[in-house]
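Submission sheet (multi-component)
Chains listed below:
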Amino acid sequence: MIIAENLTKTFRDRKRGLVRAVNNLSLNCRPGQIFGLLGANGAGKTTTLRMLGTLLEPTHGNATIAGYDIRENPQEVRRCIGFLSGSTALYGRLTAREMIEYFGQLNNLKGTDLSRRVDELIERLEIGEFQNGRCDKLSTGQKQRVSIARSIVHRPPVMIFDEPTSGLDVMTSQTIMAFIEQCRSDNLTVVFSTHIMSEVERLCDRVAIVHHGIVAAEGSVNELRQQTGETVMENAFLKIVHRMEDTNV
Amino acid sequence: MFSRLSYIVFRKELRETLRDKRVLLGVIVSPLIVTPLILGTVLFFGGKKEMQKMDAILNIGIVEQTAFPELIQKLEDNASIETQRFETRDDVITAVEERIVRAALVVSETARNDFQNNQSVGLEIIFTFANETSQNANNRLRKIIGEFDQYALAKRIQKMDLPESFAKPTSLKVNNIATSASTGSFLLGLFLPYLIVISAAFGGIQTAFDLCAGEKERSTMETLLVSPASRFEIVQGKLFTIFTISLIAALCAITGIVAPLTFGLDILKDTLGDQISIKLSSVLAMLLIVVPLALFTSSMLLVISSFARNQKEAQTYILPFISIVLLPAMLSSIFGAENHLYTAFIPVLNISLTMKQILGDLFNPLYFAISLGSSFIYAYIVMRIATAFFLRENILFRT
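Outcome: structure written.
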């Protein structure tokens, strides 16, 4: 379960002065549900997910993840989440197996529990063939499978995906999307950021359209279509964003 | 202090670092194999050249404006030179220039008279400084003339019925009480501390850049930061990896220099004493004093690497760091081993000077203690700065 209330993040930029990357953003995501953050580049999606992942501290507001406060118990929060983004890479000089083991150890898995869990993931994600190959020698698809294994090695109840298909080919993207659907089936709480409409339409149970750090609209895909009177999600998105900009003007 | 997670991070970073060919080459292979090879090659060929120089028979031109057989006979009898007569001074200058002869001796017109009247005989050596063999010939001529002078002086004294001591107002006996081993250690002290400091300071550069700026560049940093390890534990793991690599670099540098000097190079015996040996206690003391230095420089490297957005940017920030380390390290070559206590407070220089004292058998416990203590304090301060840098999200996520 993720509950975020009025999350705000401001940065001081030499050229632009005080920048409000995320502004009073609230969201509520339940287990067995995929919550999408849909927005253009620079909308504040990554900053929001980084606050939820305790990589950045909110300037205002707060959130709880699996009952843990991100300000008070960041370490516990990190134990409860799996984080996967399109840009996160693997350690090139570790083997696929060592990579998964390393993150298992960081998540307090030891001895036989660790090796059993690593074996299980290697089998499930079909990593066996290249488990002893160095990560820098793997193909993009193989790397992505290792990344998935790395993110779920500690069986997190919450998964955060930050544009996980960015820069991937269609085949690898399909693997990721199937994995996200599997997370929902496994009753995990899933937050997923993207700017690709087809992914939102396929995966998300609820969607928040984020623009300039603000939630412009929230609802299911159908609700957003109905709100705007559009049948195509892309048009619905544009209408909501333009409406918000007009209101601000 | 060092938690389980810090240890896990450290172990992984060390494993990855030791698989990095650049680190292996720079930190282990180069000092242990390349440096001794280069040192051995230079010393071997240098020694061979010196032997050839000593053995070579050199052509010497002679212009005898008046007969001076006392000296000329000595020159002609000397097996290390071959003489050749010339008519004029100009002829012999041309011969030296054209390397027909390597140096020449011009005997003045009044030589014979002057010699017989107990006067100083006018002699002129012609050689060219721009040629090594000519310099060698000049030295050899001077040596023969010097021997002739001694011989002639003894004859004159004898003839005048004076005691031998007449030409020697003092009788000096120089007694060097240093053992050959301690002379070798002293000579090692002239350059070894400098090399150790440089190795300890710069040995961790590649690792430091890879572990922080490199992680940012490859986007693996985010993955690590979102793990349950706290930033303090992560920074500890990374810092101790850089520290370990710096220590290995220093150790390899010591081994790479001392081992070939100790075991293989007889050629150096004349220069550095019969044997170059460092006492075990000295090695231990040097290892102890290098610990805070490696911590200090590792932390500085981590500060640079945390601040940089990528490895290329880190390389541009490295210049001030190089100056901070290089300048005091170079100063240590100028300073003697015995110094005022205040120098024990100057970072890097104090380490270098302490090692110099250890190697020169001038161990001063107070100097050592101050040097060690102050270096640990500096290392602690920079470690805190490195940690603070790592904890600041505006530095870690700088775009």
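Remark: Strands of chain B lie at 58-64, 81-85, 103-107, 123-126.
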